[in-house]
Write a structure and sequence with these properties.
With 466 residues, the chain is an alpha/beta fold. Helix content is 33%, strand content 12%. Helix 3 packs parallel to helix 4, helix 6 packs parallel to helix 13 and helix 8 crosses helix 11. Bound molecules: guanosine-5'-triphosphate and magnesium ion.
């Protein structure tokens, strides 16, 4: 009996040790992995818990913030001066020199934000709910501008804009987490908000456009406008019979930048559905604009379809005559006109891509310009596009140095491609565009003209793309 008890005790003790060993082994394999700092790329510029600050307050229509973490870190700088200088992040601007881009890779001259706490103690993220799960790549160091992406869209555009957002995030914003404002003439539905918020790494905001900004102004003669649409339909002018397209063009020309949600920002980057970005963006274009005193930018330029703007230049000339005080010295008239301003050559910057300064659009000069055009009625009596409107404004109201061409932002909006000129640039930026499709130096592009009036040297290899 005593021997039997002793055996039972031995079994119990053995089982206890076995369980204890099992417990020890299983816990040491989970917690006991000591993460070396270099696992996180220290010295290559990793950070984990760093996120830029959000703009102070947003209007009621704020939907939600997505992405990781709450705001902290650097303040939103509205001008990029002072504190934003000298952090050494890649400059890569309009030049296509290969060495310049080469230096952006793994640059270590940058003062990087660090993980809050000891990297060796950072838990390994094993499931989506674990901290750090979505820190797959570095959050870029440096200041943030007071900037947002902005998209005008319908609910039915959700999957097309989803594609655009994915590309913008993959190529740029996943490291910067800028906000995204969505605007619509109707309320956004739950699917649109859910899908877009899930894709944007910054905060997302959804605004409904007031009726006044998306309707016929009182002075428009409805019968006359209707006849124009019928006539354009017969002549098969693209969107010539569309009312909503006209509201869209007028809204983008005169109102998007003064929506309550946009009033929180100084800089915008316009994104349309179904665009593509073909190259990595190694630096912050908003910051580039601020530090280099740019106000407007483009990647593609071309000649406008004349039938849609027969009297636009007459209206522009009327504005020049009535408001000489708004016309900038050293402007880009040479981009717009071949005869010193007498006639318009129809060159314009393609406005479906724009990085620009909202305060400029909200300035008296620009508002006077828009209101003068709006009074003339061409948004409805013709079919003025926001691209020539923005372009003529930029060409007349800004100094020519204030307009920037982003050679390194590779872009597609049907049917045109901007693929950076210069093979090394494309390799360094990991571009996936076909250089043969680059529109810049083709006959129907106005980009050569921009280079000429600014006395800029065209990128190496441009001759082979004409
Ligand atoms: N909310 C809303 N957005 C619109 C409407 N029409 C166009 N948009 C948006 O306005 C922008 C420009 O419209 P697009 O249809 O792309 O015009 P486009 O670029 O000249 O022509 P596409 O070649 O069709 O792209 C896009 O972001 C559209 O999603 C509309 O009726 N309502
Ligand atoms: Mg479009």
């Amino acid at each position: 009996m005593a021997a039997g008890n002793a055996r039972i005790v031995r079994y119990v003790v053995f089982a206890f040790f076995f369980v204890a060993i099992l417990y020890f082994v299983s816990h040491s394999s989970y917690d006991g992995v000591h993460l070396k700092p270099d696992t996180f790329g220290v010295g290559k510029g990793s950070s984990s818990s760093w996120k830029p600050e959000k703009p102070a307050s947003n209007a009621d229509s704020v939907s939600s913030g997505s992405g990781s973490g709450s705001s902290s870190g650097s303040g939103s700088s509205s001008s990029g001066s002072g504190s934003s200088k000298g952090s050494g992040s890649s400059s890569g601007s309009s030049s296509s020199g290969s060495s310049e881009y080469g230096s952006t890779k793994g640059s270590s001259s940058v003062s990087r934000p660090t993980y809050e706490g000891d990297l060796a103690e950072a838990p390994m993220a094993l499931k989506p709910s674990d901290k750090g799960w979505d820190f797959l790549e570095d959050t870029a160091p440096g200041p943030r501008m007071n900037a947002t992406f902005v998209t005008l869209a319908r609910n039915s555009d959700v999957w097309e804009i989803a594609r655009s957002i994915r590309q913008v995030e993959d190529r740029f914003n996943r490291r910067y987490h800028y906000d995204w404002v969505f605007l619509n003439d109707k309320p956004f539905d739950a699917t649109f908000k859910k899908v877009t918020t899930s894709l944007v790494s910054g905060n997302t905001y959804y605004g409904e456009i007031p009726h006044d900004h998306w309707s016929f102004p009182e002075h428009i003669d409805q019968d006359k406008a209707k006849k124009v649409r019928e006539d354009m339909a017969q002549r098969k002018i693209i969107y010539g019979d569309s009312i909503s397209y006209r509201h869209m063009c007028r809204f983008e020309s005169g109102f998007f930048f003064r929506q309550p949600l946009m009033m929180n920002y100084e800089w915008y980057w316009r994104v349309e559905p179904s665009i593509e970005l073909f190259c990595d963006i190694h630096y912050d274009p908003f910051r580039f604009m601020a530090e280099n005193k740019k106000k407007y930018s483009f990647v593609l330029s071309l000649y406008e379809y004349v039938e849609t703007i027969p009297t636009l230049w007459d209206s522009a000339k009327k504005f020049i005559k009535n408001h000489p005080e708004h016309i900038a010295e050293g402007n880009s008239m040479g981009f717009l006109s071949d005869d010193g301003g007498d006639s318009y050559n129809h060159c314009h910057f393609w406005s479906n891509f724009e990085v620009g300064n909202l305060n400029w659009l909200r300035s008296k000069a620009y508002i006077d310009f828009f209101e003068s055009l709006d009074q003339d009625g061409g948004f409805f009596y013709e079919r003025w596009g926001d691209a020539p409107v923005h372009s003529i404004a930029a060409g007349l109201l800004l100094k020519k140095e204030e307009i920037h061409f982003f050679n390194d932002i590779a872009y597609y909006h049907v049917p045109f491609t901007h693929c950076p000129t210069g093979e090394q640039t494309r390799i360094d930026l990991r571009c996936h565009c076909n250089p043969k499709e680059n529109f810049d130096w083709k006959g129907y592009s106005c980009t050569s003209r921009y280079f000429d009036i600014n006395g800029l040297e065209k990128p190496e290899g441009y001759e082979n793309q004409q």
